[in-house]
Amino acid sequence: LSSEPEFAQAMLEPQFEHLVLACSDGVWDVIPPAQAVKFVGKFLPEEAQLAVERLVSKAQIRWQETGDCADDVTAILVWPDLDAVGR
After folding, report:
1. Residues forming beta bridges with residue 77, ordered by sequence position
2. Tens-digit pLDDT string for the chain (87 aa)
3. Residue 67, CB half-sphere, CA atoms under 13 Å: how many?
4. Distance (Å, rounded) from C-alpha 75 to C-alpha 56?
5. Is residue 5 packed enough to be buried (19+ CB in 10 Å), middle (13-18) or exposed (0-12)?
6. Most buried residue, 25, 83, 84, 85, by most Cβ within 10 Å?
């Protein structure tokens, strides 16, 4: 556990769709990042709230299936509109 944040900088290319998915380890411990991105990517940007609610529910179910005590399960999803911010 560290109080030091992990971050990276990248140029976002306009021909691709981009999203930011930030989750607590309670999600990452039971859902691999690629699977989580694929899962929320099935939703429309306007459905970001629903997408993370379903992702969190999926993580909670997986914790229940393990029989372990569930960790903090939190997720935030942002779909930036590159046209609106001038790229």
Report:
1. 21
2. 667 877 888 888 878 888 999 999 999 999 999 999 999 999 999 999 999 999 999 999 999 998 877 778 999 999 887 777 654
3. 0
4. 7
5. exposed
6. 25
